[in-house]
Records
---
Amino acid sequence: MQGSLSKDAIIVIIVTAILIWIMPFIISTYTLTVLIIYGMLGLSLGLIWGFGGILCFGQAAFFGLGAYTYAIAAINFGESTIPMVLAVLVPAVFAALLGAMMFYGRLTDVYLGVITLVVTLILFKFINSTAGPQYVIGNARLGGFNGIPGFQTLNIPGRPDDYIWGDSYFYVCAILLAVVFFLVSALLRSSFGRIAVGIRENETRMSLMGYDVRARKTVLFAAGAAIAGLAGALFANWGEIVTPSLFSLGQSAEIIIWCIVGGLGTRLGPIIGAAGLAYLKFLLGQQMLIDNTLITGLILVLFVLFLPKGIVPAISNMWKVSFGRRQLGRIHQQRRIRHRGRANG
Amino acid sequence: MDLTVVLLVEMLYAVASLILISAGLAVVFGMMKVINLAHGEFMMMGGYATITAVNWGVNIFVAILIIAPLVVGLIGLVVERVVIRHLYGRLVDTMLATWGLSLFFIGLATMIFGNTTTGISTPIPGFTVGTYQISGYNFFIIVVAVFLLIGMFAVLKGTRAGLIARGAMQKSDMAAALGYSPDRIYMATFFCGCALSGLAGAVLAPLVGLVPTSGGAYIAKAFITVIAGGPSLIAGLFSSAGLFGIVNQVFTFAISPVIGEVALLVAAVVLLRLLPQGITGKIFKGKL
């Protein structure tokens, strides 16, 4: 990664400020809020998949867990500050346990995907079957298929009657996304982040260099889940209801699609992919001619076939080719390497 | 006594349906290493093919055993030519592309058949054992599953085509050097896998109310059965389907159907944690 962290911070602040100012003129803040939340969810998978190489099929599980934790806690506490914290912590702890089980068992790629998928299904089936009155946590009934409506939404910390909603909720979400984005950047710049990328590239080599690959993967997995949990809590506040469909495989699928379309291994890609595709879905939802799912599927297939790296890397490549410094031709490069080798040897 | 018989039949039925659900995927994923997330949708299309054929007046058994596998196999053939063949060997990419395909097919089915439940009645009447009622169709499913396993074994082990297919999956360049076209072999194998999925969907169609999103109910079960089965195709399929089917039925009977499903999934997670290579990675090694 180029540049320094402080430069990152300045860019994030400037871009966020401009976007917060301009975007509401184009799209209503109500829609924008959910696009931001999806962006954050995309970023959570982008972090662990794009930079840690952990393909998680169950990111929706953490998203849903965050949302449910918030809803249940909000009903029990009657205010929103502690529930927000819990909604980040509970998925993180859950992911740490799950991750420890998987990574210390040295499960990789396909098996990892299947286990995360299965765990999501278990949660989905379980929550779906909790319609009866015996499924109660504190004062909150889990409500099965109908979900949990009517919980306390976000309020100013310490003042349970001052709700944050409408435009101000949009600003809260936007700023939170910027903060999360900045934290992710900081994490990736730290030695932890660089080692995580090293693990993605070559796990054996990193473990031979003395790094505890299992522990690092577990921590990264938990960090991704924490972001997803935060997104879930924000989503619960936005929708004012949580339902089991948050855990569904379709939701997990969408998150993966966002990352692929936006571009893996970039921080911005998943956010752009998420917001862009969610907005596209919103626009498509307004027409009845062609089924929505069909188009989503088509987009995914076309991207895998023709643009497997995603939008952001493709654009930045194009930028480099058109405006950046030309790279040397292949023959020149080889010659230069050979010279360097001679000089060193 | 009666209860034991009923339970036994239910268990056999659970195992048989798991075998049916997973057989197509075992070929496509187990042999060809294509993570086919559209497997459930191939089954869904098998179901729709059957129902449409029956509504047009075709005999239901012809529709289930011949028409549905052919239709779905042909769809699979098109899919292989257009999408999958560009992606062999790229595990994650096949997964994402087939996920896209699955969404595409769900959308297509919704547009054609509408987002409503359709179904046909089971063609075999039930009968009673003591005070219990057993669906006669369960036996049909068990018989189909048995013939399916025997058939797969016979084709893979006994015929030249099966030998060529297995060889090409193991080392395609060697098969090519011996004068066979891996491209063609892959195409044919994918066709067979899809036809098996279509058959499974067709056989199960009379039991479930079919909606365009029905496929999602099968996909996870199929995957955990195939992955838990491990590298050998038929032994793995049989052993893991047996294990999961029995676990599922025991817990379903003891507590509730939901707990039965959850128990199946938990058993899968535990099993994969203990035997990451699947059952046949440790036991029955080297068998087909």
---
Amino acid sequence: MNAKQQLAELKMKSKPKNTLNQEGSGYRVFTVFNTVLMCLVLLITLYPIYYVVAASISNADQLMRHGGLLLYPLGKWNLFSYELVFRNPMVLGGFANTLFILIVGLCFNMVLTCLGAYLLCLKGSMFVRPISLLILFTMYFSGGMIPAYMNIRDLGMMNTLWALIIPGAISTYNMLVMRSAFVAVPATLYEAAYLDGASHPRILTQIYIPLSGATLAVMVLYYAVGHWNSWFSASIYLSDTSKYPLQLVLRQILILNQNADLKASVTDNGELAKYADQVKYALIVVSSAPILMLYPFLQKFFTKGVMVGALKG
Amino acid sequence: MSTTIKVKKKPLGLRLKKDFSNFGGAYLMGIPVLVFYVLFHYKPLFGALIAFKDYKPRRGIWGSPWVGFKHFQSFFDSFYFGRLIGNTLTISLAGLLFAFPIAIIFALLINEIQNNKFKRSVQTISYMPHFISTVVICSMIRLFVDSNGFIVAILEAVGFNIGQSLLNLPNAFVPIYVLSDIWQQTGWNCIIYLAALGGIDPELYEAARIDGANRWKQTLHVTLPGILETVVLLLILRVGSLMGVGHEKIILLYNDYTMETADVISSYVYRRGLINGDYSFSAAVGLFNSAINFALVVIANKISNKVTGSGIF
């Protein structure tokens, strides 16, 4: 008997506990109701996303005249709006800048977060408690937006991508999640390594980090999503549009309706009005697809992060 | 011999020496982390002192004259004070009233799904919107509630007379803000409850069943008490951030028509400080907000410690 069959049989055996028959007809009605409700929830969750995709590939004329729900893309599929998105140098530059921020930012994030988490998990040190208190305090009290802005300005980081990378290098919450993973490493391993004369950098890199793989993955993902989706710091620190990360380019086009490239490449006014909205739909698809397509494969790491964070409290 | 006596007395110098010989390497590694917290958390905290000064760019933070509570006073006396606090509380209380319980109910309903495949699909899909960026969410809202957007079309089909973007209607702002939040975050927020539900001892259900409890009674007497602690903890956290409505979504959604209901403390700080350059005044407003947030967290935590025996710190 192969493993699959065994598993199926086990499931069969454990099933009777939960069979609906035991619970009476009231519960059966509830199950039907619940299933219908959940399908409705799925529909409401997915429909706006579906609408955006369908609108982005609809015939532009028909889309402009259409009001109300879209059940399927209108007319013949039309990828011209995608062409307009990929021809836009601002969008391509935005992708490049975001990629730079993502990669360099993650290096800073991970190194500093691990160092900090290691510092906070030392057992028997005189300084860990005062340092933790100083760090925890910053989670609950901050000087606010204006002093933070002035600080970056005084440090000479205005209009540099460093302003988007360094001030956010450590998220205290993430560092505490990392620390809880380090605390779970058996103390005997630390002691044995220490007695054998291993230095702290070595203990961190060869014992703590290899033993915290899953949490490290969670950290990388959390920081990466943060970098990918962040726009506000960029909007206050950057003045040079060529340095804009993707989300700020999106804000320019989607929210402020400033799309210089579209006006340059589509000169006819009627055509312009036709594509102004459709380009937005295409841009939403292009900018959200990477994360939405990767996420289902990484889901267990994301949810693990929530649970580890919760346990800490 | 003499060393053992010294250890018994434990003079500070010797303890420090021992501490450093044990952990010196780790402290050395921790220096970048400490520098980070000093530079990006504590320095701005002292920079917040400009709230008590009349900041003049030429004279710098330290050279500008002290004015005491002048800026706080003029904020308290201004027309904005009541409106901003009212709007901030309205938005967060609406979230507390609707978004908070909906996540719990959703988790309970997911937990009742018998078919594992369906259950997993519901989870994966409902978490998905969490990963869409704020800029994209806000732009989707703008497109959907526009005068020819599908949401307005539906509302007009059921008899409302709108004829313009819902974002121009002051009364629609809070519902739009809260409903879009529910759409985006409910799935994600229920993860923590699902974790708590998974942690309930199956024997409790077994015992309840033997005592003749049906599914509904089991929910009432086993499930709900099982997640009560998590619910209370998250409720406390939420109460602690009642005055902390973030500025990002507000800035991306509000306009001149909706200021009276949409403007919150953080968006006002942004506008007065970073757009109008009124540093001292808006730093004072921000500091006032930080102080209230801090007080709320401390009070909420005290209550939590009393009620559930555990808190966030």
